[in-house]
Amino acid sequence: MTEDIIKSFLFEIERVLTPSGYLFLWVDKFHLCEGISSWFKEDSKMEIVDLITWNKMKMGMGYRTRRKSEYLFVIQKAPKLAKATWTIHNIPDVWEEKVNKTHAHSKPLGLQKILIEAVTNEGDLVIDPAAGGYSVLQACLETNRLFIGADIETEED
Question: Could you tell me the pTM of the whole model?
Answer without folding.
Answer: 0.88
